User: Fold these one by one.
Assistant:
Number 1:
Amino acid sequence: MTNFTYRCSQCGAAYEADQVTYTCPQCGGNLDVLLDYEALKKEAASWFAQTTQREASLWRYLPFLPVGDPGGEGTPLRRAGWTPTYTLPRLAQALGMTRFWLKDESPNPTASFKDRASAVVVARAREIGADVVITASTGNAGAALAGMAAAVGHKAVILAPKTAPQAKIAQLLVFGAQVVLVDGTYDDAFDLSVAAAEKFGWYCRNTGYNPFTAEGKKTAAYEIYEQVIRPHGLERLNVFIPVGDGNIISGVYKGFWDLHQMGLLETMPRLFGVQAEGSAAIARAWQAGSDEIEPVSAQTLADSISVDLPRDGWRALRAVRETQGAYLTVPDQAILEAIAEVGKVGVFPEPAAATAFAGLKAALAQGLIAPDEPTLVLSTGSGLKDVGAAMKAVPAAPVVPPDLDALAKLLAEE
């Protein structure tokens, strides 16, 4: 296990690894995990320069993670991460872009980006002897925890809003987690899960609240470096990321920041956070130039990023400000259109994942980036997570009798 310390992202207070578990005791801010970057510089340069075959998962980065080898060989725990990055030439051409990539997180074991965080949190739980891990989730984080825990026989408890999509609830149940539906919002489930963890002595995975979630998510940045930045010799890259709680963009920022500290990245990629118009607390704060994030009453079909009060909002603002990026908001209709547009080149995104692509289109239209700038979209989950939303994105299929003439007539009309 790589040695690490904590530093509060807001007040700057420092802690040893065994002094704190979740947030800063002084101000309540979320904690950053700090590695020994000076010691890692030489190792990192050598490691990333090698072309030897490594494990096709996030566990290839064990030298740069604050957990030891979790075991679990032969299980889905060892398959989280190392997802494909596509160039999608027809989509790039339609955008008028010359250097475009889309990183597709749907091949993860439970079909979303959240497997990265859950895999690392489960590894940490096993290290510290925590018998039960609990989380609040609108679906994806819970499914990821349930799946990663099931892979190694660990107990998971998931609190989800009763309005979460049925496909996501089904995943939770099939993976054998103890599932409780909360008659309230995600934020209500979040607060209840923290209280339950404290009362019962469970380990809480909650997004942002647990500093190891960002450590799992940072591995996507390492992969982008390996798959895109290094092989193409890019000096700068734009990265578009869907934002709800703010932990994905915070984690991706942390990964690039690690690489910068280890001397591998001279210039950090520009991070663009994209929120649904109906759930845009962080984007509003950014547009106002404020550090204060006011809660909203979230209303969007993109359930994975539907959040009243973002729990990692401060670091999400930092990620964009310190990389000279921007926040954009997009309406639900643009999200639906993005599902259909990306789907036509063979990638099936859920609404939250499609939000990032909708944000890229908005950025091009507003002149925030130029078409010739190297740009990557992070597509965070499979459309199979929310088939109901997907059906709203496309026309209904016609019905014909089992008759060739009827089929021919329909085809001629279309």
Note: Residues 76-110+214-393 form a domain with the Rossmann fold fold (CATH 3.40.50.1100).
Number 2:
Amino acid sequence: MGKSYFIWNGIDCRNMGVDLAGPVSIVRPEERVKHVEIPGRSGDLTYVEGENVFNSYIQTATIQVRGGYHVRDVYRWLRGSGYVTFSGEPDRRQPARIIGAITLDKHSHNLDIWTGEVQFYCQPLKELLQEPTVEITSSGTGIINSGDVTEYPWIKMTASGTTAVITIGGNSTLMTGLTSGVKYTLDSETQEMITLSGGDLVTNKTVGLFPIIPVGSQTVTGSGWSKLEIKRRERFL
């Protein structure tokens, strides 16, 4: 079994002379709920804020730095925000920010090893390091969301007419006033539609909800487009 490690903003801790004292836990985030006490009634009522809404959380890594001359380099590296990957889930990353002070103390008088803790304030949903992109050229093509929550994909669409429809998992998006042959992008996270060539914001051409991909097997149907390129954005707990 290999040593535990983490990768922060594309840099492996082992390449910085940093070891972990032990593996970092794999956390399933807490669902965001509110508990309300009712006067005169035992217990309380639990209100769920929304479907698949989870709280951010802190991951603490205990690190060992080999050589005091590395300490300042480590301080400069472990700062700000970005993406972190822990060795327990080597194929995934999650947005995070390093918070709190980092204090490195000498482990012993005989060994030039410095120990301390790093706190990562992690966003709850993880993504694949290599996100799959699916190309669809015909209505009725199947697609599978293997993640734990609904996907909010990024879609590049080549229009074949002035009107187009994309339907996934029963959710339909209608687009009007298009130009045949022009490529458009739809970003379901930001709720924006843009022309790929000119970069013009044309969200006003959409009617209905932006495309989403529920968990499990789904079918992509529609008309008015010759090709869809879907960046999946699968997310995991």
Note: The chain has two domains: 6-125, 133-236.
